[in-house]
Amino acid sequence: MATGEQLAQYRRIFWHNCDRYHPAIRKRASFYTFVVLLxxxxxxxxxxxxxxxxxxxxxxNNPLHGVKLxxxxxxxxxxxxxxxxxxxxxxxxxxxxxxxxxxxTFLRKTQWARDKVEKLYLQVVAxxx
Length: 129
Fold this sequence. Notes:
With 129 residues, the chain is mostly helical. The chain folds into 2 domains: 4-48, no CATH class; 69-127, Transcription Termination Factor Rho, Rna-binding Domain, Chain A, Domain 1 (Orthogonal Bundle), CATH 1.10.720. The protein contains 9 helices and no strands. It has helices at 4-21, 23-28, 31-37, 40-48, 69-80, 82-88, 92-95, 100-109, 111-127. The longest helix is centred in the first third of the chain and has 18 residues, at 4-21. The protein starts with a helix and ends with a helix. Mean pLDDT is 75; it is low at 35-41.
């Protein structure tokens, strides 16, 4: 249950958004209209997601967070070359007519191959930060 202070804050934000998006609502809106229009999406956007701004990122300990697959593959190709990469990870898209585009297509569809590429990427980054 919301406290009086929270309810007052909800009302202020509700009226602000009414004035901003549809000024005619303010004229005929009552408290019951306010309760009906205060949807789960509105609550999620303004209160649930912003409850604790000091909370650390959920992916803070994940070294792959924010690294795109294309960037991983480009680094591995630059570091090893296609021939050695094909020896380390036996995938046909690294052996037969290898390109970044075809490899990315295959890796996005095949989780086991992507896991191997990510593992090798982490090994390379750990050795050469």
